[in-house]
Amino acid sequence: MPRLKLKRLDALLPSFLFLAVSAAQVNAADIHAPPSAVRSVTDHYGDLTVIDPYRWLENASDPKVKQWSLAQDKYSRRYLDHLAVRAPLLKHLVAQFSANSTAYYDLQVAGGQVFARFNQPPKQQPMIAMLGLDADPATARVVVDPNRIDPKGTTAFDWYVPSPDGRKIAVSLSKNGSEDGAVNIVDVATGRQIDSTIPQVQYPTGGGSLAWRADGSGFWYTRYPGPREAPERQHFYQQIYFHKLGDAPSADRYVIGRDFPKVAEITLDNRQNPDHVLVTVANGDGGEFAHYLLGQDGGIRQVSRFEDKIVAATVGPDNFLYLVSRKDAPRGKLLRLGLNDLDLTHATVLLPESEAVIQTAGEFGGTPLVITPKAIYLREIVGGPGRVAIIDHDGKSLGTLPLPELAAVDEVAPLGDGTLLYSVMTYLQPHHFARYDEAQATATPSKLVRTSPISYADTDVLREFATSKDGTRIPLVIVRRKDTRLDGSNPVLLNGYGGYGISMEPVFQGPETRVWLDAGGIYVIANLRGGGEFGETWHQQGALTNKQNVFDDFTAVAEYLIARKYTTSARLAAIGGSNGGLLMGAVVTQHPDLFRAVVSEVGIYDMLRVERDPNGAFNITEFGSTHDLAQRDALYAYSPYHHVEKGVRYPAIYMTTGATDGRVNPMHSRKMIARLQAATSNDRPAYLSINNNAGHGIGSALSIRINQIADIYSFLFDQLGMKP
After folding, report:
1. Is 489 a catalytic residue?
2. For 594-636, how does the pLDDT look when each residue is reduced to its tens digit (9 = 90+)?
3. Which of 578, 669, 689, 700 is catalytic?
4. Is position 696 annotated as part of the catalytic site?
């Protein structure tokens, strides 16, 4: 790729002249938007020179930035709140969400009991309940309720871990969607806190984790260096400490981590064997992992290094170590290793690589490996839909867990009595759990079934393929009413992500997609490269210097939908969040005429400065760095912020961000919307909504989430001329 240079003449003009010109040219900008002063800064990335007109919008603590942000949010609210569709749509969504039954998930078995998070609309936050092994919600007892702790609904769980005997629960709690969590220990019998609160245990993106000692007398946990120790290290250099119940947190013993990478993301796990704690250390977000074993005696042994390509592991109840390796197997192979000999070259291959991808230990999914005395269960994915393979301890296939077509499983919980509970996720049915009997090899419905007032009986789910620019076949899932006519008149909402090896698996579509279908729309999900749908090769084809493939894939899917007469550009909208927000920014700047409207949530747009964000270092292994010449050129070539051009007819754009977002710096949304508002030659608006009580979306109160959905669909209905 040639080395690139850029100097923008308009960015060199004094800010007052820039604003005067913008105001005079009525058709050259969104003249109704709040003004954004230009204060140009020149950056040099080697021989690449870039002018940044809105650098000042990066400083969230600047009173002028706060004033600008307030003006932008008011501008958005004036538009959204006066749309005739919004009030009835919000009322409908509130009613639909409130009518959902209790939903149980994140099951953990301890002390002969089943613990679970559960949502109970209209309560604002999930709670923790304890059930018997029959998993009957009728006998569930609430153990921890953040709605009582904080009636405003702004305090949420980050995660929880019950002690092996089920008598205590460690809970990480954070506020306002910040994911900045402290651990509290709760007595299950009384619901009372019984030990000191331990701060600085959880923060995005490094997260946080905890594993109890087998006898429940204490636990290992992750901890970040505090601001008094080293302010610049506050949210990096995650380490492991041990806490003995009853001791002050200041007396906790350091265990390991000072030699880990700055962007280490640590998880601790001994759920399947309390005597052995497996430590997984991710090197940022790019998919590299190292593993260690912690013994009850305090001993530490390294199992794997980043270059070994072990992407998931667990210690089974049989005292064997089970590992998913992608060494010469990009879709994964299963290894077994005795705990007395941790030399990976001595591992036994239980299951060689196949057409299915063995899942990794992903941040938001359950373990991909579950071991029982009878069998081994592996969560797999094939292009989007998932399954759970069953093999015996010699590697012989025992089939798969029963599932409907186009389904996925994100949890498998052995109950210790020869049965397992496993989640069943499909596009058209609410999430529920089935019970599998190992002896009979049969599955029956469990009582953990969610009901919804939403029916998709009139709906089809189709799986088709588009062809990308380089000839790669890209899967897409189309959710449409059975009576849909392919005459090019349908409003279509296209969703995509394409990053971090995260797969777009089947999930219940809920009230918002039902509203969209009832208004004549079609909803489409693209399984883009950069995800994990076809393994590590698929991921790497959309990462680092290959990131442009993701945008080409999404464009190909959009063009496929138009060519097959599902829709036209005038009726096509796109939506994506986080890394999917980067995708939205890229397709807007590369193909501004392809979409009528675009929704981009908590997105990344300035790719030359993302690694300098408070959280940006975690992304280098996925996106690359400007310090590497090839990666710098690739980053600049697609960076949405740097490719907004004056006089281009951009689609209508609605962006959202949260003030407490610790995963994506909100400055990206501020700078991007300012540039779009100043550049567009269209009469279509560019809006930015900023929520001061939300972060990246994780832990947001139910009322915030429903209002955000109402905003998004009101915007789309208005821009595409739809009626509910």
Report:
1. no
2. 999 999 999 999 999 999 987 888 999 999 999 999 999 999 9
3. 578
4. yes
